[in-house]
Design a protein that fits this description.
221 residues; mainly beta; 6-stranded antiparallel β-sheet; 5-stranded mixed β-sheet; globular; disordered N terminus
Length: 221
């Protein structure tokens, strides 16, 4: 959002007191923050180019705490070094930065920090950086690999393959600056045939952006 020089951005909780000149309301965008639902922002613009943003969130009560200290980071259950030991993928195709929840043999939740430095953005698209849908699907499959390549399931990284995908839907675009949060859940495992079926959902700021069903093969190559 472009602001005139000498402009001021301030965040206040609740209603904004309007002293002096009359404030003109601007469109109200939403702000997505890690581990929380989307926050509604009310913007007002004064003639002296000051921009005021008020949070309409009941649980943000301690406004004396700076915003950068108000929201905790995602937990780390499996860090990037451990992920590299589990998954065979490497740059530029390792698309999981951290696992923030893991239920052995059942499910995992991983995150991908989407940044403008990702190597696919120069071509997709130069003027509007959007994460390709096929890479969202690949990232979700890699989170599924974290579940499948564990002793509880018995998969092997030498003989583990992404075998198929079904019912995929892309709900919203994922852009540079987003944190993609992906949950993969094992819903069917046929060890005899080395086939597993998983359900995947991906979110940004609590909003569903992608979902689908995944087929994994753990048999011999």
């Amino acid at each position: 959002m472009a602001l005139a020089s000498n402009s001021l951005v301030s965040f206040t909780h609740g209603s904004l007191s309007q002293t002096g000149r009359l404030c003109q309301p601007l469109p109200s965008p939403s702000l997505s923050l890690p581990g929380s639902r989307s926050l509604s922002l009310k913007l007002t613009h004064r003639s002296n180019s000051a921009l005021h943003c008020s949070f309409n969130v009941s649980d943000c009560t301690d406004m004396d705490t700076p915003i950068e200290k108000r929201f905790p980071a995602y937990p780390t259950i499996v860090d990037i070094n451990q992920i590299r030991e589990i998954l065979p993928h490497r740059f530029p195709f390792l698309l999981v930065d951290r696992v923030i929840e893991y239920n052995p043999g059942v499910s995992a939740v991983g995150i991908k920090n989407v940044t403008i430095n990702d190597n696919f953005f120069p071509g997709h698209f130069p003027e509007r950086p959007i994460m390709p849908g096929v890479l969202m699907v690949e990232a979700m499959a890699q989170v599924g690999g974290v579940v499948m390549l564990q002793p509880e399931v018995g998969g092997s990284r030498e003989n583990f393959f992404f075998a198929g995908v079904d019912k995929v839907r892309f709900r919203k675009p994922v852009i540079a600056g987003d944190t993609l949060v992906m949950r993969m859940t094992l819903i069917k495992l046929q060890k005899r045939f080395g086939i597993a079926k998983m359900e995947g959902k991906a979110y940004v700021g609590g909003d569903l952006v992608c979902e689908g069903e995944f087929l994994m093969a753990t048999g011999s190559d």
